[in-house]
């Protein structure tokens, strides 16, 4: 399945642009940026506008390192307010409905024993994506643009070491298509410890184009002093992008870490910010 045949290519172009922007002393013109990447200005403008919905010049503003801090000031979500409005229990993300079911603590303790996990590689807006799922929904989504496919596969399989893994992208295709085209419903099967699942449910309440902090998440789940444990749980999120751990920032506005590479996190925040304000 390939929701957009060019989306991984677009991410690689954007990734190279990000490196150029970080090393530049100031804004880079469209002509200069396109020339450095050996792409015509017209083609560069077209693929960027198609991929993110705004021009390359506008997108540069969202890729700057200070964008996360600006988002924290202007677009921070108060999760406790979201919870009070009844947003817990189901989440709306990327214009699609996500439904989730959590594995019981006993099932999690068995480390996947007796569980069949289907997997396949798919194209995504942020490079190659390894997607895993059970008969209840997607349970893993790894982004391999920065880590490589082998590392992503080893990471995912190690989370449920006693499970049976079956390559079967066709079974996952409808869920993945809904996830990356923002059309339809995607089901998630959360496989984690109870504390981790509480953190991941809080992440699902953060709307696209907005961010929150680790301390806000800790408060929202009733453990205001557990900021470090929250950060660890965020980092162990097995379903990147759909459970949006990239929207969790440090209180200072720093990006913090990201399991699949900070360039991917910055790209996600920029992509969502640009689309939210386009």
Protein traits:
13 helices, alpha/beta, globular, 278 residues, four-stranded mixed sheet
Protein described:
The chain has 278 residues and is of the alpha/beta class. The protein contains 13 helices and 9 strands. The strands form 3 sheets. The chain has a 4-stranded mixed beta sheet, with helices on both faces. The chain has a 3-stranded mixed beta sheet with strand order 1-2-7. A hairpin with a 6-residue loop joins strand 3 and strand 4 (129-134). Helix 11 packs across helix 12. The longest helix is centred in the N-terminal third of the chain and has 17 residues, at 7-23. The two termini are 28 Å apart.
Give a short summary of the structure:
With 278 residues, this protein is of the alpha/beta class. The protein has helices at 7-23, 30-36, 41-52, 56-63, 67-74, 79-84, 105-109, 149-159, 169-181, 194-203, 214-220, 227-235, 262-277, and strands at residues 91-93, 96-102, 116-122, 129-134, 137-143, 164-167, 185-190, 212-213, 248-249.
Number of helices: 13
List the helices and strands in order.
Answer: HHHHHHEEHEEEHEHEHEHHEH
Please state the CA-atom Rg, rounded to the nearest Å: 19 Å
Number of strands: 9
SSE class: alpha/beta
The overall pLDDT average reads 80
Shape: globular
Question: Beta-sheet strand percentage?
Answer: 15-25%
Biggest β-sheet: strands ordered side by side in the sheet:
5-4-3-6
Uncertain segments: 1-5, 81-96
Largest sheet: 4 strands, mixed
Could you tell me how far the N terminus lies from the C terminus, measured between alpha carbons in angstroms? 28 Å
| Helix proportion | 40-55%
């Amino acid at each position: 399945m390939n929701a957009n045949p060019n989306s991984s290519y677009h991410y690689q172009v954007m990734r190279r642009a990000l490196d150029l922007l970080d090393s530049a002393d100031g804004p880079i013109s469209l002509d200069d940026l396109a020339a450095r990447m050996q792409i015509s200005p017209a083609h560069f403008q077209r693929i960027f506008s198609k991929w993110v919905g705004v021009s390359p010049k506008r997108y540069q503003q969202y890729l700057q390192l200070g964008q996360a801090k600006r988002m924290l000031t202007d677009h921070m979500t108060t999760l406790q307010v979201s919870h009070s409005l009844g947003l817990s229990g189901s989440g709306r993300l990327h214009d699609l409905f996500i439904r989730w079911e959590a594995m019981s603590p006993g099932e999690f303790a068995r480390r996947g024993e007796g569980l069949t996990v289907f997997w396949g590689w798919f194209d995504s807006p942020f490079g190659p994506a390894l997607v895993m799922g059970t008969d209840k929904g997607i349970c893993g989504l790894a982004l391999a643009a920065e880590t490589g496919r082998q590392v992503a596969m080893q990471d995912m399989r190690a989370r449920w070491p006693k499970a049976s893994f079956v390559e079967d992208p066709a079974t996952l295709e409808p869920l993945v298509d809904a996830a990356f085209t923002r059309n339809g419903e995607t089901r998630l099967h959360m496989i984690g410890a109870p504390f981790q699942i509480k953190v991941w449910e809080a992440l699902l309440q953060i709307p696209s184009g907005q961010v929150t902090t680790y301390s806000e998440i800790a408060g929202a789940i009733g453990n205001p002093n557990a900021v470090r444990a929250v950060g660890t749980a965020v980092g162990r999120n097995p379903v990147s992008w759909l459970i949006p751990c990239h929207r969790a920032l440090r209180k200072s506005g720093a990006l913090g870490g990201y399991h699949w590479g900070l360039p991917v996190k910055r790209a996600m925040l920029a992509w969502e910010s640009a689309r939210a304000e386009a």
